Amino acid sequence: MGEPGYKLVTAGKVTGCYGVKGWVKVHSYTDPVANIAGLGQWRVKRHGALEAFEVDQWKRHGKGMVAHISGVDDRNLAESFKGLEILVPADSLPSLEEGEYYWRDLQGLQVWGREPGSGEQRVLLGEVDYLIETGANDVLVVKATGQSIDDSERLIPYLPGDVVTRVSPEEGVIEVDWYLDE
User: Fold this and answer.
1) Cis upstream peptide for 32 (omega within 30°)
2) What is the arrangement of strands in the sheet containing 122-133, beginning at the earlier edge strand?
3) pLDDT (tens digit, 9 = 90+) per residue, 115-163?
4) Which NCBIfam families match (predicted)?
5) Would the pTM of this model clear 0.70, i.e. be above it?
6) Where are the alpha helices (DSSP H) in 22-159?
7) Is pLDDT of 2 > 60?
8) How far is CA 115 from the centre of its chain?
9) Domains plus CATH for the chain?
């Protein structure tokens, strides 16, 4: 998918058409949603191939956005983008402060918790499958692996300094202050 060392990340999705002049509805995964407009050239993967395209106009619409794709001037052509994920260069994402992570950096990390009554003995709870935004805080959805303590899926609040005691993407580990019976 591109040149060696060139990484793309999913920044949103085309969810439908808007009007009859080639505009599309965009669900942005960025926060705030308008940040997707400044993340470099958008690409979609269609039929196994990457297609680059230019957005020549965009605007906020309700809780989301609508965008006009350059050269797409009718609803039928815009319809062909429906359901496609919007990919952007990973290096176009803003830099984060130390201790901050993009969700994609947390996915796949092993999650280690504590067994009740064991003191500091750590046990593997599973690995982060994905995250959920709840409004109050984000939640790690932790799926069991072959090496996990059991076969349970767990929902663990992502609260750094409280529930989440250590994150190390370099080591592939998240440590949580979370007991098996919680």
Assistant:
1) yes
2) 154-158, 138-143, 122-133, 110-114, 173-179, 164-168
3) 766 666 789 999 999 998 887 889 999 999 999 989 999 999 999 988 9
4) 16S_RimM
5) no
6) 75-79, 103-106
7) no
8) 30
9) 8-92 (2.40.30.60), 103-179 (2.30.30.240)
